[in-house]
């Protein structure tokens, strides 16, 4: 992982399909990968992260929607505990897979 990039989780609960789809597109355009229906994960540089945050804030309704963005260092990520079908292996990149497994 490049030192200028950091691992980021994006977790959301968005009520309207149209808004949700736009947020999904924004996270994918930022280079993140879907690991669950409403969870994205990946490495991103600070500029792209800031751009994505601004875009997401403009898209959502702050009265009804929730978006959580969690930066995480690789050391802490390797301590994540999963059970069952925690990640959709078909949807994550080799870079993220290397961190997970």
Biggest sheet strand order reads: 2-3-1-4
Using the 3D structure, state the CATH architecture.
Answer: 2-Layer Sandwich
- Output the radius of gyration: 13 Å
Q: State the helical fraction.
A: 25-40%
Topology:
Elements: E1 5-13, H1 17-29, E2 33-36, E3 39-45, H2 46-59, E4 66-72, H3 74-77, H4 94-100
Antiparallel strand pairs: 1-3, 1-4, 2-3
Helix pairs in contact: 1-2
Written overview of the protein:
By secondary structure, this protein is an alpha+beta fold. It has a single domain, classed as Alpha-Beta Plaits. 38% of the residues lie in helices and 27% in strands. The protein has a 4-stranded antiparallel β-sheet. Strand 2 (33-36) and strand 3 form a beta hairpin. It is globular. The mean pLDDT is 84.
């Amino acid at each position: 992982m490049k030192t200028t990039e950091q691992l980021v989780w994006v977790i959301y609960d968005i009520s309207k399909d149209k808004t949700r789809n736009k947020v999904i597109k924004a996270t994918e355009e930022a280079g993140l990968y879907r690991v669950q229906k409403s969870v994205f994960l990946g490495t991103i540089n600070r500029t792209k992260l800031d751009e994505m945050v601004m875009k997401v804030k403009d898209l959502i309704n702050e009265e009804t929607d929730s978006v959580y963005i969690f930066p995480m260092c690789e050391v802490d990520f390797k301590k994540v505990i999963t059970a069952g079908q925690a990640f959709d292996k078909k949807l994550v990149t080799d870079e993220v897979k290397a961190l997970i497994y």
